[in-house]
Amino acid sequence: MANITRRIGLSLGADICWPICYEALMKQLDLKLSIGGDTISIEVERVYIEPFDLNQDCQYDVVIDRLTHWFQVSREWIKKAILVNDLYVYNNPWSIQSMEKHTSYAALLRLGFQVPETWMIPPKEYAASADLQSTLDKYAKLFDLGDVGDKIGYPLYMKPYDGGAWVGVTAINNREELHDAYNKSGTRVMNLQKGVVPSDAFVRCVGLGPQFRFVNYDPGAALHDRYQMDYDFLPADQAQRLADTTLVINAFFGWDFNSCEGMRQHGNWHLIDFANACPDSQVTALHYHFPWLIKANLRWSIFCAATDRKMNTDLDWHEYFAIADQDIPFEEKLAGYVKLARRRFDVDAFEDFCATHLSELDEVAYDFFASEIMHDAIRQKVTSLFPVQEIDTFTELFWNRVQEWRRIEGSGS
Ligand SMILES: Nc1ncnc2c1ncn2[C@@H]1O[C@H](COP(=O)(O)OP(=O)(O)O)[C@@H](O)[C@H]1O
Ligand SMILES: [Mg+2]
Predict the structure, then answer these.
(1) Of 99, 230, 311, 356, which sits 20 to 30 A from 125 (CA to CA)?
(2) Which has the closest alpha carbon to 80: 98, 65, 93?
(3) Are residues 183 and 211 in the same domain?
(4) CA–centroid distance, residue 64 to ligand 2 (Å)
(5) Is residue 318 part of a domain?
(6) Among residues 164, 194, 224, which one ends one of the domains?
(7) Kind plus residue range of the DSSP H or E element containing 249
(8) Do both 246 and 140 map to the same domain?
(9) Per-residue pLDDT tens digits of the chain, which is 413 residues long
């Protein structure tokens, strides 16, 4: 019988809008959770960057991290806090550091998912290093780039093996364009990937813990319109397939928060980009979908903090491979992977927890997303991104889309 405070740390970079909303909603919820005879409350703080001693305590039970993929000091602090202080963090920093896009293609291929034909090619140029010339002289085979392109077929995509945010991605239609793109690629190590062309749908499935959101994604639209506002637009079986796929990917790699991009061709989903372990969380991109993200983030982080969830740093890939290697149809394999993934994410316990302890969230959130704090959070984010003469227009645009979410979905989850 004790009063226990659990602390959630937000390890942030350029994030503006979602932490404001997350913190404000947590405050409004003012949770006093009765768990195992104890009363548990939750505090949220921002994590600051400062020197740290390996031996020092960590004041957080859970950290939601947005920096690990590029900011070394925070990544090393997090790794130390997991190892020394039993911190739970999303996402697993070792996995983010080592599982690039290319690894994720290889893993899903092994598990039997549909990944377009993908090659890796040695880079056009190398940064100077002591052993470079002797290594290349002895072991780098001359290759005919055009032959590789012909084998894959056109159109194909050249993209960095570890890429994100569309940097360095080129659509290529013939040998000439392939050579041209390669000549401009510098030191970046590139994948060539068969284009999923034509396709009749492009969906980004965002997973946060065992919660999923499907976004009809228009890659050709302006940034603020790429996430289309459609709701409930997929046939139930396809939505289930994408949710299962994202759940399995995230469990396999130890990512609590990640998004999976799939393109549909002749009724099948081809996975093109699913190593995004710091997904876009800004209201200026998500707008209509933003409230879902905030609520999902609150639910999962509160569950992790309140139940003192332990970080499982083992990925247990052998369990997946044991299924992958059986001579059974893919549907059966997928069902096996989903079982493993549901166990890893404690899906049943999470759903019970939400039903028991977070039933108020819908109502509190419904009011919150029409509040002045929400409006101001949008304005702050817009101000950081848009030219001064567009601030009013875009603040209202995103505000109206959030209100549209309230109208259509606001009273449910
Ligand atoms: N194999 C592919 N088939 C069709 N389009 C692709 C393919 N690969 C990439 N693209 C297009 O290029 C965009 C960026 O590629 P993606 O792999 O998603 O990289 P990033 O990690 O930078 O988002 C995608 O949103 C899609 O429009
Ligand atoms: Mg992408």
Answers:
(1) 99
(2) 93
(3) no
(4) 22
(5) yes
(6) 194
(7) helix 236-253
(8) no
(9) 799 999 999 999 999 999 999 999 999 999 999 999 999 999 999 999 999 999 999 999 999 999 999 999 999 999 999 999 999 999 999 999 999 999 999 999 999 999 999 999 999 999 999 999 999 999 999 999 999 999 999 999 999 999 888 889 999 999 999 999 999 999 999 999 999 999 999 999 999 999 999 999 998 999 999 999 999 999 999 999 999 999 999 999 999 999 999 999 999 999 999 999 899 999 999 999 999 999 999 999 999 999 999 999 999 999 999 999 999 999 999 999 999 999 999 999 999 999 999 999 999 999 999 999 999 999 999 999 999 999 999 999 999 999 999 999 998 65
Q: Which domain holds residue 363?
A: 201-409
Pair (277, 345) in one structural domain: yes
- Which residues line ligand 1 at a C-beta cut-off of 6 Å? 116, 157, 159, 163-166, 169, 193, 195-197, 219, 261, 263, 272-273
The total number of structural domains that make up the chain: 3
Burial of 353 (0-12, 13-18, 19+ CB in 10 A): buried
Q: Kindly state whether residue 107 falls inside one of the protein's structural domains.
A: no
> Is residue 190 one of the residues assigned to a domain?
yes
Mutate to test the pocket of ligand 1, among 152, 159, 194 (most ligand atoms within 8 A of CB): 159
Tell the residue number behind the tokens 């992790």, with chain if given.
Answer: 304
